[in-house]
Structures are given as structure tokens and as C-alpha cells.
Automatic annotation (TrEMBL):
This is Sugar kinase. It comes from the Bacteria. Belongs to the ROK (NagC/XylR) family. InterPro entries: ATPase_NBD, ROK, WH-like_DNA-bd_sf, WH_DNA-bd_sf. Residues 1-10 have a biased composition (Basic residues). It holds the Pfam family ROK.
Length: 429
């Protein structure tokens, strides 16, 4: 994509001993810092904010007061965990600011409202009988969103939408360049959704936003170097965190781990190659071998683990699980050798392989190769379900709000109160 540059900012790591500044000219930065800390901790005391930012108590009090007035945080009960001095007031994300999270896949379109702090509200999973077209996704999301919006309590506002796509997304304008399993090519889905919803919409790869969620709220929180690998109906993708920052690559497409070669002359992949990780390790093969009834794919992990508990380590299902665990281990070994992460977080159906055949996965990952990169890496599991993807999609929508809380909301008001429910009458739930 020549001539285009990414507008996506990486995860920001603290620089220097203090996150904040007491200079008036940096008030926007200080508001952003405080709101970001409240968001990712889902609750923090004034005393903790003072220590984390290096700002004095009166400045923190003023910043928190402004964020309260903006409807972005709330002051609640005193922090009784303090062992010295007076208890400090707790600051928590307000439930009034919401983002719309969207994740289309080959068998369903997931939509949810997500609050600051990564709190998912009334998620909807709309199952489809085949891979939906981009136009069908717009229609499904529009219908779901209308129902959600009209039932919101007074005072709540939807600040934007985040779109997580199982494919390549142009970081400059959100065009879906390619989503092979969905059979999408050059689809302007982001622009179509923005027009249909009358909301700002930001899009990114689903595994990449999952990595953002893990960095903010999950297993990767506080870990400066980790890799998130997600397996879903559309294949396998990854998100790479190095030095506390999300790696984008030259054109914004870093993290295509599903196309790591794991078997020479293997199965044909949707990308046109053979033997890719996502063509050798598939959810569909597990569903088929476990004889899972149609429409019960969400129960795959529970069913596979139950069947393996009831049967000896033999038979077709065990063979498939161990073979996929070996292929996953080969792919992860390449990741470890190239990136030297301290942690690998597995999400989606890849959890099954780590739970059912941990010894196989670990032995393959650590066999041969340079000792250094593989010696200390750990494997962790992301929470069960699609929550990290939806939470990560919401992070895309929250990013401009957190970067400039007052300016963002002022700009939304100037654009018109179309989606600001603070001025709308209460609607019946």
C-alpha cells in the first residue's frame, strides 16, 4: 500500500521517573495519564495516582475533579487497604462512557458495548450459516446497535466503535485489504459502518487487538515482551508486544503468525502457500473429530477435554490433538527464536492444545534450537471465550478519548449530540 502511513499509535511505555507533569501546558497529557491509569487498573486510589504520576495531591484532585465533570470517572469508597495515614478516595471508571465493539467471523458476528475498564455490557453473538459479506455485517451490526442504543439509560454515551477483523486491515483508512476466510478483498467496511452507525470507527486485525487487551487487562499486563497467539474460526493470528509497545511493522501488518511455515508440503493455506500454521492447526478439524453437533462450536473446549478425560490417550481425537500441539509448538519455536518474548499467551481454540497436551507442546517448543530464547519463556492462557477480542476492539475506540479526554468530548459535542445520551430522555430497557 504505497503512499500510506499508519495512524495507529503503539502502546505507550512510561519514559523517565514520572508519568505526569505539573506544568499547565501539559494538562491534556496529565488528564490522559490519569484517565489511562484509572482505565487499565479499573480502580485506583488518589494516593496511588500521586505515586504513579509524580504529580502532587492538589493537582491529582483537580484532574480527577475534571474527569468526574466529564463523566469519565467516579469517586467511590475510601481505600481501606492503606496501612499508613488516612484512607484515600478510590477513583473508578464511570459506566457512562461506552464503546461499540464489533468482531465479524466466518460463523458469527459478535457485537458488544464495552465500558472503560474493559467491562463488557450485553454482548450479542449473531450466528450465520455461512461467512457473511461486508454488506451483511453492516446490516447485522446496525440492527443490533439500534437495539442497544435505544435501551441505554440516560447519561450514558457511546464514544465510538472498534472493529476487529480476521484479516489484513489498512492502518491508514481501515479498508479490509484481505480476509481470506471471509472471501473479502478491498472492502471499505470501516467507512460503511461509520456511515451506517454515525460513529467514528477504527479497525485492526483481531489478534492484534486481542494483544492490546492482554497488555491492558489480561495475562500480559505489566509484561514488556510477550506474544499473543489467537486461534478462531478464520485461522490463527498474533499480536507482538516488545519493550511495552505493540509492533506494527513497516506497513502495519506485523503479527501474521498463522502463516509461519510448520510443515513442508503440508495442507494448502488460504494465503496460497502450503504448510502454514493455520492450515495445519485448525478449529474445524477439532470440531469434526470431536463430532460436535452444528451450532455448538462455542462448547468445543469443554467437549474435547471431556472426551479426552473419558477415553485413554489413543484414538483419532487424541491423535489430532497431539499432532496439532506439535505443529503449534513448531510455530511457537520460530516465534521464540525471532522475538525472544518472556511469555506466550494462547487464546481461542489454541487453549485446548495447551490444556489437553501440555507436555507435547512444551517438549516441541523446547526441543533443539538456541537455549537462550527458549529457556525462560512461559506459556499462559487467555480467558475463555471471545472477550479479549471485543475488549481489544473497544480499546481502538477509547484510544482518542484517553489521549485527549476533554478535547475528544468537546469535539463530539460540536459535531452534534447524535450519540450523546446525556441529553436524551431515558428509554425503557
Amino acid at each position: 500500500m504505497e503512499g500510506k502511513t499508519s495512524r495507529r499509535a503503539g502502546l505507550r511505555a512510561p519514559s523517565g521517573p514520572s508519568l505526569g507533569s505539573n506544568r499547565d501546558s501539559t494538562r491534556q497529557h496529565n488528564l490522559s495519564t490519569v484517565l489511562g491509569l484509572v482505565h487499565t487498573t479499573t480502580g485506583i486510589s488518589r494516593a496511588q495516582l500521586t505515586r504513579a504520576t509524580g504529580l502532587n495531591r492538589s493537582t491529582i484532585a483537580a484532574l480527577v475533579g475534571e474527569l468526574v465533570q466529564l463523566g469519565l470517572v467516579r469517586e467511590s469508597d475510601l481505600d481501606q487497604t492503606q496501612q499508613h495515614g488516612r484512607p484515600s478516595i478510590m477513583i473508578q471508571p464511570s459506566p457512562d462512557a461506552l464503546a461499540l465493539a464489533i468482531n465479524p467471523d466466518v460463523d458469527a458476528v459478535s457485537v458488544a458495548l464495552v465500558g472503560l475498564g474493559g467491562r463488557i455490557v450485553n454482548p450479542v453473538r449473531f450466528h450465520t450459516v455461512r461467512a457473511p459479506s461486508a454488506a451483511e455485517v453492516v446490516n447485522i451490526v446496525s440492527a443490533v446497535y439500534t437495539g442497544m442504543r435505544t435501551s441505554l439509560p440516560a447519561g450514558q454515551r457511546i464514544v465510538g466503535a472498534g472493529l476487529a477483523v480476521p484479516g489484513l486491515v489498512d492502518p491508514a483508512d481501515g479498508t479490509v485489504i484481505e480476509a481470506p476466510q471471509l472471501e473479502w478483498r478491498e472492502q471499505p467496511l470501516t467507512a460503511q459502518l461509520a456511515a451506517a452507525l454515525d460513529l467514528p470507527v477504527t479497525a485492526a486485525n483481531d489478534a492484534v487487538v486481542g494483544a492490546r487487551a492482554q497488555a491492558a487487562f489480561g495475562a500480559g499486563r505489566g509484561v514488556p515482551d510477550f506474544v499473543y497467539v489467537y486461534g478462531g474460526a478464520s485461522g490463527i493470528g498474533g499480536g507482538l508486544i516488545s519493550g511495552g509497545r505493540l509492533l506494527h511493522g513497516a506497513a502495519g501488518f506485523a503479527g501474521q503468525l498463522g502463516h509461519t511455515l510448520v510443515r513442508t508440503g503440508g495442507a494448502e493455506c488460504a494465503c496460497g502457500s502450503t504448510g502454514c500454521l493455520e492450515s495445519e492447526v485448525t478449529r474445524e478439524e477439532l470440531i469434526r473429530t470431536a463430532a460436535l453437533p452444528p451450532g455448538q462450536a462455542d462448547d468445543l473446549e469443554e467437549v474435547v477435554l471431556a472426551k479426552l478425560r473419558d477415553e485413554p490417550e489413543s484414538g483419532e481425537l487424541w491423535d489430532v490433538v497431539t499432532r496439532q500441539a506439535q505443529q503449534l509448538g513448531i510455530g511457537l519455536k520460530s516465534v521464540v527464536n525471532h522475538l525472544n518474548p518472556s511469555m506466550i499467551v494462547l487464546g481461542g481454540f489454541l487453549r485446548i492444545l495447551a490444556l489437553a497436551a501440555p507436555d507435547v507442546l512444551d517438549a516441541t517448543l523446547r526441543a533443539g534450537g538456541a537455549r537462550g530464547p527458549r529457556e525462560d519463556v512461559s506459556i499462559e492462557l487467555a480467558p475463555l471465550g471471545d472477550d479479549p477480542i471485543l475488549i481489544g476492539a473497544a480499546e481502538l475506540a477509547f484510544e482518542p478519548l484517553i489521549a485527549d479526554p476533554a478535547g475528544f468530548l468537546r469535539g463530539r459535542r460540536e459535531a452534534g449530540p447524535v450519540r450523546d445520551h446525556a441529553e436524551e430522555p431515558a428509554q425503557p430497557a
